[in-house]
Amino acid sequence: MRGSFLILLLYCAHVNFAQTKYGLKATTFPEYVKTLKSNPEKELIDLQKLIPGIVLDIRYATTNNFTGEKIYTLAKAYARRPVAESLKKIQADLKLQGLGIKIFDAYRPYKATVKFYEVYRDTTYVASPYRGSRHNRGCALDLTIIDLKTGAELKMPTGYDSFTKAAWPTTPVSDPVVKKNRDLLIKSMEKHGFRVNSSEWWHFDFIGWKKFEVLDIDFEELER
Ligand SMILES: [Zn+2]
What we know:
Blueprint: H1 2-16, E1 17-19, E2 25-27, H2 29-38, E3 44-46, H3 47-50, E4 55-56, E5 78-80, H4 81-95, E6 99-105, H5 110-120, E7 140-147, H6 176-191, E8 194-196, E9 203-206, H7 219-223
Parallel strand pairs: 4-6
Antiparallel strand pairs: 1-2, 3-5, 6-7, 7-9, 8-9
Bound molecules: zinc ion.
């Protein structure tokens, strides 16, 4: 009896949560689908479908990222419903100024966070796998602003994933255009419920992120 109970427990753990070596429980696809029934806010929304005209440059689906490896098999940007809806409002605000959004990363499967940590180890710039990233919760976005006419990115203090002090949003910038662009990005995001990361001008957390669990769902599972 006791043995079969244990087997049942192990089975449930296998179905619902990825067994992570860092002890964090990450929700897998079957459990995620179940939670959507009682809480549709938790749905991961395809940003390209919700926000027409949004530009994606998903660096982790290419080798152009700090690991030098292709981490994602699909170049997709998903975020939880309230996060995606807030971003839609930000895109609309920017459009009035002839500007738009380019996404570098959005929802990130937990297994990618583990990989980043094992490559880089410095938790100033990569999330600890013991806690997971807000990207794993579908509540963080890495992005910049583009000129809608040319598609060019506005000039910012550094490139994406520059692990330097120049990337901190509090670091003074001498170029007034760069300062204006960084301020515009931060103000646009703050207006709709996001907060900039203290060491990355491009990373924004959705303020309600605590309500959303860490997920380990592959993009392929969401695309089905
Ligand atoms: Zn980020």
